[in-house]
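Q: I have two molecules that I believe assemble together. Could you output structure tokens for the complex as a whole instead of separate predictions?
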Amino acid sequence: MRIAGAGVDTTHGPILYLEGITVSFDGFRALDDLSLTIDDGELRCIIGPNGAGKTTMMDVITGKTRPDAGTVYFGQTIDLTKMTEAEIAHAGIGRKFQKPTVFERHSVFENLELAMKADKRVRGTLRAKLARADLDRIAETLGLIHLGDAADREAGSMSHGQKQWLEIGMLLMQEPRLLLLDEPVAGMTDDETMRTAELCQTLAGRHSVVVVEHDMDFIAKIARKVTVLHEGSVLAEGPMDVVQADPRVVEVYLGR
Amino acid sequence: MNAPLPVPLQTSLRVPVHPLLTKRGWIALFVVSYVLFVLVPSAHLLLPAGHPLHLSDYFVTLTGKIMCYAIVALAMDLIWGYAGILSLGHGIFFALGGYAMGMYLMRSIGRDGVYHSDLPDFMVFLDWKAYPWYWSFTDHFAWAAALVVLVPGALAFVFGYFAFRSRIKGVYFSIITQALTYAFMLLFFRNDTGFGGNNGFTDFKRILGYPITAPGTRVALFAATGVALLGALLLCRWIVTSKAGRVLTAIRDAESRVMFIGYNPLWYKLAVWTLSAMLCGIAGALYVPQVGIINPGEMSPANSIEIAIWVAVGGRGSLVGAILGAFLVNGAKSWFTQAFPEYWLFLLGLIFIVVTLFLPRGVVGLLSGKRR
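A: Yes, here they are, computed for all two components at once.
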């Protein structure tokens, strides 16, 4: 339960290994022998048509779904298939859902406060007090997600795009090593999408970031390395222009 | 020409304060304490019965009883209003606390029962020769008082652990709690269970050596209930104003998000659920000596549903609202069941419908809405 994010062993480069992952729902193979590695500090985009298994892959990494077969390692040593959602979050993996889920009845500030890396056991939270350093971290995150003057607003009263940012901010407060962003620009205006692209680029390097998106303009803006999923396994992988030119990719996805 | 002024690095954030009570809250607490611990006892004990300001036995006992209910309402609000878990079986914890105290009170009767035996009358009637093992040491007040919190707490912990670990939620959880209290009611109705069957425990004579119906004892029980109620209020207030309280409301609103930011909701739910059951046990233990009887009727599902109605009427998610709800509904009940006994349940149902449709935040929501 108490594994710090700093304990992730990335001496061999990759921060996340997926190997031979298979997940079936009632005979339907959502993931079929999927293998994938993410390097430490990398910004990776994952694309693929609907039903390619993108969200299921996120579910497997974060412990929501248990794979029928295969191994998931965080760094060299941490076996994610044997951990609960909360333990995985503690280990240093933060996830943004497809639909933004923030605590609507809490203020923006409280949302970040709850997410902040701290003792998250009952006894710890009963006595928790905010230190000056905690306030500075919250202020810094508020600036990063463009919500500097909205600290006291109720999260439920914010626009869709602002909620997406708040959720990313909540992830950042956990000081994760790996960020999983499931459709971070869904429902955003063009302006908001632009700012989110900048945000993603700021985050890469400080964290390893995996972005799942449909919005190809957005992907083109931020992509360094792209992985294309199709029917539960990797179809192609490489720089955006190479992948875009791959005839198999064109056939299943981009060409439509 | 001029060097630019250094811009002070500043954040506009202030440390948010979550006071245990506001200044007005402390004043209100002081006033209520004064009324409970000075005015009511003196008006009951010192003023003669004919005096216009004399408070009758009936008034003191009724208010004491409703304060017990108010503790239950607080316990219910903590688990329902804040953690979002609706229990329709909280009566079981109240009744178990009452039975634990009742065992002590039964043994305090001594040989003054109808059969002048060392055993309670119902055991003599069943031709039992000795106390069953689970009655051991219940002649000691301290052990009985420990049972008052330990038994409801242990039952809640075990039940809650399995229910929350299996992620049973919402209406399914409510139905299971209802079944729990119903099953216990059937168990306690049986004479063989050793708790007096459908008659339960009654005809208490004394508590801690004092005659139980003496005015002084009555006032002492009343004051003890007042202390318990205010103590429970402060304890609940401390919890809901802490970060743990914000985690609880977050679990209520978006449980999966709470898990993914690294909290384990199981322990939060279990802690607050067990505490809630223990508070109910204390309320039950204070209720029994004041009312003079405990029987399995307290475990009937209808009683537990009524608890939820008090909280809904007062305003869930507001601790003062829960207390207010308990007083309003039970005050109305004691008046109405005398004036129009056959219509009480209709009125209760009507109150619940009106509150659900028009006052989602209860009476407290109505009051605070007006102020704005």
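A: One point stands out. The longest strand of chain B covers residues 201-202.
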